[in-house]
Design a protein that fits this description.
Largest interface: A-B, 42 and 43 residues
Number of domains of chain A: 1
Oligomer: heterodimer
Strand order of the largest sheet of chain A: 1-2
Number of strands of chain B: 2
Strand content of chain B: under 5%
Distance between the termini of chain A: 21 Å
Number of domains of chain B: 1
Order of helices and strands of chain A: HHHHHEHHHHEHHHHH
Largest sheet of chain B: 2 strands, antiparallel
Number of strands of chain A: 2
Structural class of chain A: mainly alpha
CATH topology of chain B: ABC transporter involved in vitamin B12 uptake, BtuC
Largest sheet of chain A: 2 strands, antiparallel
Strand content of chain A: under 5%
Chain lengths: ~325, ~290
């Protein structure tokens, strides 16, 4: 693939996503696709630190939830424009990334993973005990009227989240092909050796953690508009974090395509399963798929594809 | 009056601390000593609790006795778990980080399995001491917490004796310090870890019995324990059994005092704050190994 064409593909893809809801009307399609897009974008964000750097974040729902609550508070309670609330959600989640990063990114990866679990509990407890954020009762969201040319709020949400997802993928492509990506992969393989060679490991981990947190918060910032009623148990659900890292692992970590493939396939299967079977086994299906992949195909789907392609080429 | 309340909450916190220590001991061994970050440990505790419930109902046993009965089967379950972990991850040279993913998957599978097998509602067992309190001076201590404290402390003492006095126990501590040197001394690290994972899982059976004795259980409650057990283990100095008891007591007392002054809504945040603070300020815990 030539690099010079990448911006062109980007513009084409973005216009397709923005234009689709204007011409193709099918509300259920957008409600289901929204969740799939959400998982693709979250997985792409997760991959920045988890895939390239090898630091597993088990607290995706903390970043997502902070973004969601920050944005809901700004446009719902303070009555400020939604357009301000969305980036503010991302910024708050980035701040969480800075806090967690400073306290735990110097430790071994396992401790970082556990710290992200604790951070999720802490943020959830804060929301549970803050009346302004609805406590355990939850928040009812005042939904704004859909601006033309979109006839429905979900169409607008689909179009904007589509844009955020494409931009996240582009960012991840850029990270992968820059010195930041190489540095992260070097420290994933051997942190001490990378440090000795002059790779600024802590700054790279911090950058990846904050950027990944920002993107997760940005995705979360749309969530109140989608769900219309928010409460802390489902917003900070461990299941979100679990889904995201499994989708990335099954798609294939450490490449920009992996989380896109994993999020698209597993997200779609989950949406289909919720309609046809029951949502109770959603997580179990994903967990079983993950155990199978972890044991039989550690490289994920991307690994299988590239193996297949290389063996064909030989 | 206010002083009495504080005194009673400290005393209850102390008892709860012994209970927390029993819940965390398995993780002290797996995470602290053998570098296996078993996040599914609380889920296995609940598996133990549900099996103890079935045993207690079938044979009219005390829940703690049922937990003790399950210790041996859980030891073998731990052996099997380690064999799988070793074959799928460790031998491939993958880090404990890859193992985390395996245990996370097990956690979800166990939860969904328990929810569909036993139902999502609360389940409890009647015990004659369930609502009896022990009165000492001004203090009124729930008997179920007194018993779980005694059982927790007994488990701590037994485990400490095992780790310091027996060959296998010393080998487990040695594998944490230098696996290569251990293999030069003629003990296989994999065999040592097989035993260690068995012992770790055996403590989950006992802990399950204690949880059932303390209160009603439901399938997704294990998530409330993940932060707590890791906080206790890290606070105690990852791998120190006596440190685990101390960490458990510190957490139990802090949670109870927090509940009095800030309300019960903040009790879960206590372990999260402790865990984050210890990791940031003193990652080696209060007692160094």
């Amino acid at each position: 693939m030539k690099r010079s064409r990448a911006p062109l593909y980007l513009v084409i893809l973005l216009s397709v996503g923005v234009a689709l809801p204007i011409f193709f009307k099918q509300p259920y399609f957008y409600y289901a696709s929204y969740i799939v897009l959400e998982y693709i974008a979250l997985s792409v964000a997760w991959n920045l630190l988890g895939g390239y750097g090898g630091y597993l974040n088990f607290g995706t729902s903390a970043f997502f939830g902070v973004g969601a609550y920050a944005s809901a508070y700004i446009f719902n309670s303070l009555r400020l424009p939604v357009i301000l609330a969305i980036p503010a959600g991302g910024a708050m989640a980035a701040l969480l990334g800075v806090l967690i990063g400073y306290s735990t990114l110097r430790l071994r990866g396992v401790y970082f993973a556990i710290a992200t679990l604790a951070a999720t509990t802490l943020v959830q407890s804060i929301v549970l005990n803050t009346p302004a954020l609805g406590s355990a009762v939850g928040l009812y969201i005042r939904l704004p009227p859909p601006p033309p040319p979109y006839g429905n709020l979900i169409e607008l949400l689909f179009a904007t989240l589509f844009g955020v997802t494409v931009v996240s993928i582009a960012l991840s492509y850029w990270v992968e092909n820059s010195w930041i990506g190489s540095g992260l992969m070097a420290l994933r393989d051997d942190e001490e050796a990378a440090e000795t060679m002059g790779v600024p490991t802590f700054r790279l981990k911090m950058f990846a953690n904050v950027l990944s947190g920002f993107l997760m918060g940005l995705v979360g910032a749309f969530y109140p508009l989608y769900i219309a009623y928010m409460e802390p148990y489902s917003t900070f659900d461990l299941g979100i974090s679990f889904n995201v890292f499994v989708m990335t692992l099954i798609g294939g970590t450490g490449t920009w395509q992996g989380p896109v493939i994993g999020g698209l396939i597993l997200g779609t299967i989950q949406q289909a399963a919720s309609v046809t079977i029951t949502s109770q086994y959603n997580l179990a299906v994903v967990a079983a798929a993950m155990l199978l992949f972890a044991v039989l195909a550690p490289g994920g789907l991307k690994g299988i594809f590239s193996k297949f392609i290389t063996s064909r080429a030989e | 009056m206010a002083f009495d309340l504080l005194l009673e909450s400290i005393a209850t916190g102390l008892l709860v601390g012994g209970f927390y220590a029993a819940l965390s001991l398995g993780l002290t061994i797996s995470f602290g000593l053998t570098d296996i970050a078993n996040v599914a440990h609380p889920a296995f505790i609940f598996l133990g609790a549900y099996l103890a419930l079935a045993l207690s109902q079938a044979f009219h046993l005390d829940p703690i006795v049922s937990g003790v009965v399950l210790v041996l089967p859980f030891y073998f379950l731990g052996n099997a778990l380690y064999l799988f972990y070793n074959k799928a991850f460790e031998r491939r040279g993958e880090s404990s980080l890859a193992g985390l993913v395996l245990f996370f998957g097990l956690l979800i599978l166990l939860e969904v399995g328990m929810a569909s097998e036993f139902g999502v509602g609360l389940k409890a067992i009647y015990s004659p001491y369930g609502s009896v309190a022990l009165n000492i001076g001004p203090l009124s201590l729930p008997l179920r917490f007194v018993y779980s404290f005694v059982a927790g402390v007994a488990a701590v003492v037994l485990l400490q004796l095992f780790l310091t006095k027996t060959f296998q126990g010393r080998a487990i501590r040695a594998v944490a310090q230098d696996a290569q040197a251990l293999s030069l001394m003629g003990a296989k690290p994999a065999t040592v870890k097989l035993i260690a994972t068995g012992v770790s899982m055996a403590t989950a059976a006992l802990a399950g019995g204690l949880i059932l004795a303390v209160g009603p259980i439901s399938p997704y409650q294990d998530r409330l324990l993940i932060g707590r057990v890791f906080a206790v283990v890290v606070l105690g100095g990852s791998g120190s059994v006596l440190g685990t008891l101390l960490g458990g007591i510190l957490l139990g007392v802090s949670e109870n005092i927090t509940t009095i002054y800030l309300g019960a809504g903040w009790s879960l945040a206590v372990s999260a704050v402790i865990l984050l603070a210890v990791l940031a300020l003193r990652p080696s815990g209060i007692l160094r190994r």
